[in-house]
Amino acid sequence: MTFFKIHHNTTYRYNQPVFLKPHLVRLRPRCDGWQKLQHYQLDVSPDPVGQSQIVDLDGNATVKLWFDRPTEKLQIFSTAEVETLQPNPFLYLLEPWAMQLPFDYPSSLRSQLLPYLNPVGILPTTGDPVATELAEDIVYRVRGNPIDFLHQLNQEIYRNCQYIVRPEGDPRSPSITWKQREGSCRDFAVLFVAVCRVVGLAARFVSGYQEGDLEAKERDLHAWVEVYLPGAGWRGYDPTHGLTVADGHVSLAASVYPSYAAPVEGGVVPVTSPLAGEKPLQSEMDFHIAIER
Q1: Could you tell me the pTM of the whole model?
Q2: What is the mean pLDDT of residues 66-74?
Q3: Buried b (16+ CB within 10 A) or exposed e, 200-218
């Protein structure tokens, strides 16, 4: 068991007064059999006129905020105290029918997992060709063993790809990440998910924190993957570090779509229309994350 205290401060600055549209904040760590949330506090400036607690379709704890006055800055301060509970990520027993890829899912289970197997709106619908080639190669080498497949995929990305920092922007396509052999943690997670889906493994994107070097002054939000293993449930894999997720990771949110696991989601509208001669709207974001044990 490991205890973490996490401070996460995010600031958005705008070059002119703006109205803040409703914002969704996904910074509350999950509380389940893998981690226990001891304390959580969320502070926002300017003060929202209202907020509501939401549990979304994936079970993520989300806060919806709405505002009633213009501002040139939005600040979100999150403090969490979390105890992680599972030092051994391999303590499980697979279902007898899940010992070899591809799985022959019972129809009721497959219908529940379908969004994580073949999500609507993710292109190409037939699977990324580079992800397909990588999946076929690894399946052949591990002779269809699902645990060996996941371990080998994790190591392939970790050993062959260079990590780069990209604080903003959507994840790259699996093909671009693998061909260029570089990417951010979210790029590696999207690649991992795509390869899993080729062989019929349900997978989803996860955002959160990883303990890393506790002496480091600069920390980043992290991303990894959860794969549904029949008999074991959702199990985490971190291709950025080549790790199976255990008590060194703190999960915030998980979703079939990376954008639905983003820590903050929302938009703004300029107070003065550009047609009135106001300069184009520009914004910048900075953040600071501190993790203590």
Answers
A1: 0.94
A2: 97
A3: bbbbbbbbbbbbeeeeeee
